[in-house]
Structures are given as C-alpha cells and as structure tokens.
C-alpha cells in the first residue's frame, strides 16, 4: 500500500520526488482519526519554496484511487484514509489463495552463500556460535523465500596450532573411551591440562609445534588423530544442529583450504601485494592495519584460509552475495579480508558482507559455555526444554505429544529470544523469561497460533472462498499489518536482520489478540466465517514467520 500511495503522490508532484523518497517519508499516524498513512510536506516545502500547508492541499486534491476512501489536507500533512473493506479483501484474498507462499518470490536463479555457525573442533560450542547458527539459518530461509538458492556452509575451525597441542596432550594423558563418550568435554580437559603443564614444562610447547608440523606435512598418525578429533566433535555438534533443526550443504572448514593456499599466495606475489614485515608476509591496506598472510616459518593463518575460501566459493558458486555471520569481535578481520580481495582486483568483493552480532549475557555478564567447570550448550538447551515442559504441565496437562511440543517450545524460545533483538545488541539469556507464554517471547507467538487453530476448529472453519465481505472490531489494524509482510521480509534480507520478522510476528500476534479479546468471534452466522478468514490468514503468517526464523509451530500447546 505504501508503494502504491507513494506512486500516486509522486505523480501528483510531477515526480519532483521519487517514489522511494516519498515512501521513506510516509508515516503511520499515531491516531486512527488522522488516517491510515500520512505524508508530511516539510521536506518538500524547502525544495519547492512553498508553504507545506499549500503543498498538502495541492497533493490532497490530486490523488485518488479505488483503494482510497478519503484524502484530507490537515496542516502540513496529507492524511490518507484507505477504503478498508476493499483493501482488506485484496489482502485477505491473496493470503488465503497463496497461503504460505504469500510474500514468496519466484526463483531468480541466483545464489547466496551463508557462512555461519562454524564452531571450533575440540572446543565447546559457544553462545556466539549459537547466535551465528540461529541468525545464519534464518537468513538462509529468508534468502530462499526471496527466490535465491541458499548455500549453507559450516566453516569449521578445524586447523591451527592448537591441534599440535591436542595431539601431544592426547599422547600423554588421553583416554580413548572417555573421548568416544564425551568428545568435547574430554578433549577440552586435556587441552586445558596441556596449558597448565606447559607453564611448568616449556618443552611441551616445542613438542606441540613439532606435532603440528607433522600434521601439516601429512604424517599419518597425526592425521588420523586429527580426523578422529574432528569426527567426534562434529558428531556432538550434530546433536545441537538436530535440536535446532539446522543443516548445512558443506562442512568444508579451514583445513579444506590447506592445499589451496599456495596458489593464492602466489597470486598475491604476482600482483605485487605481498610485502615483508618483520620476517612475516603481509598485505598493506589503507586506513587499517596490514593483513598478516604468512608467519615467519611460512605457516599460513586464519586470514589466508579465509582468502582461499572466498575465492574457492566465488569460483564454485558465483553467488550474488556471501554473508559471514560472525561475532562483531571479528569485524576487523573481515574488513581486511574484503579489502585484500578488492586490492587483488576482484569486483565481487563488494558482494561480501560481514553480519556481526553482539554478546549473549547472563545476569549482565558475558555468558560463557566453559567458565569454571564445563557447561555445554546441549545442557543449556535441555534446561530450556525442561522449563517449557513445566509450563505446559501447568497450562495444559491433557496435551497430546507433550514431549514433542515441549521441545519445540523450549528450542523455539531460545531462537526467538535471540532473533527478536537487533542483532548488534547484547542479549539477555533468562530461561524463565523466554519460555513464558506471555510478553515478547516465541512461545507467545506459538501459543497465539495454536489458539487460532482451536478457534478455527470450534468454528468449523473450512476454506471454500477467499472473498472477504465484512470487517469488524480491530480487524482493520490486523489487516494493515498483514499487508506489510512481503515488505518486512525484504527488509530483513536487505539489512541481514531477521529481527524485523520476529518483531512483525509479535505485533501481529498482539494485534490479533486485541481484536479477539474485544470481539465475539463465534456468533453462528455468516459474519463468523468472515472473522475466521482473518484469523486463518493471521495463523498462516504466524506460522510462516516462525518457519523463516527456524521455529516450529505446534498446532496445540
Ligand atoms: N571458527 C571461527 C570462530 O569460532 C569462526 C569462523 C567464521 N567464518 C569464517 N569464514 N571466518 O571464531
């Protein structure tokens, strides 16, 4: 509607402002008596050297359309009242016919690569990795909704000098069975022990360096151990992915690029970009520190591997965009990476985007999955599901599939708690708050949808025709929100910010609940059907919003 109106206003102004400019100026008035959308004329007044009141009057006289009921010039504003039933019918008809495809765009033949989750082998899956997983997965779903093919890549941290330490630690203190049973906990234990012992026994560090060198040179035993650590850790990560309902197209981590860096370094040399600095090799950059590519001993680094990875992915997929969903502490790393690619002459470096995010806090402090004794993410998730189970037990002890629903609610709560926030904000992890069925929570949205399912059943609603003939109560407010859904998804994609969708779902749930609280729905007449059409449309959009965020929508809860 905004775009349609902006188009009319632009025409009325003989295009002295573009449709986009007008759209960005349009406001939703605070009070219903000021219309559904209003256009402030202050900006134009300066440009056209006329009073804003006069401009408002001129515009108001010129615009008309079948979806517009009335246009009023009130002071410096053009206040537009939509033809409610007409607009409502257009919107509802579309949703009921398209169902979950409302807002879906046709396949555009383009790819989007998403580098997300990317935990480190033999280390606990951190809260940061959880955030990356949840945000990345939502962005992938959103990309698909908008017609892209999404390629989900888990850039595992499976290489680096720490593997030398692990190999030595394993040879000294490792217990095969214990590691098989609890890979990450056990590997972390011997890794921590390595550091403690190395404080006392300097030579351990030399041994670790040798072990890593052996690994890099392809030593069989070292390689077998590395592979075992990797497989065992991955198996444990898989449990988390399964709980979260996330999957990947590729698990090519850092190690995958070992044999691909020679040619990248060569290219840097040929392009005259590699310089020596204190014995190491760097690429000098403008307005930021140089990017370190090779250490004194010739070993490559995190950045070198990311450079090789970017080129590999570009050549393989030719994506329209690559998103890196990684915490904001790595902002400099990605700035450098993109700058190096640009210096190499790759125009496509402009299509790479770092998607940073803030920290997870508990009681105001950074939440860690490894402080003191080992707390693993799987345990945190188990605790959330337990809390959801308790809530359901209180609210609806009769419920079938209690276990399954509790898991969907508990996990949904964690995901929603993350995604409802602007991603750069730090977020508070309070299990109690996020699993309640009221307030700004995932369970609230899920619960609203489940209640609508019950309502539809009670009202024996069956979808036969999509035309909407009647509106009452606060239905119009609900319709106006529904209408914005396609736009909300696009904004989420452009800003790489799924929170717009989470916020939308909260607003829609709240708005519907208000309508429902003030209006008797089941009146056993033809008007009941019309109300239930709106309710049905709302439930479709709540489900679709949750799906995009990576959250299940139980039918009953
Ligand atoms: N493994 C890294 C970490 O845990 C994140 C990797 C992110 N992706 C990338 N292409 N650098 O910090």
Automatic annotation (TrEMBL):
Oligomeric and partner information: Monomer.
Family annotation (InterPro entries): Arg-tRNA-ligase (IPR001278), Arg-tRNA-synth_N (IPR005148), Arg-tRNA-synth_N_sf (IPR036695), ArgRS_core (IPR035684), DALR_anticod-bd (IPR008909), Rossmann-like_a/b/a_fold (IPR014729), tRNAsynth_Ia_anticodon-bd (IPR009080)
Name the record gives this protein: Arginine--tRNA ligase
Residue ranges constituting the Arginyl tRNA synthetase N-terminal domain according to the UniProt record: 3-82
HAMAP family: Arg_tRNA_synth
Compartments in which it is found: Cytoplasm
One of the GO biological process terms: arginyl-tRNA aminoacylation
Matching Gene3D superfamilies: Arginyl tRNA synthetase N-terminal domain, HUPs, Isoleucyl-tRNA Synthetase, Domain 1
Reaction(s) the record says it catalyses: tRNA(Arg) + L-arginine + ATP = L-arginyl-tRNA(Arg) + AMP + diphosphate
Natural source organism: Lysinibacillus halotolerans
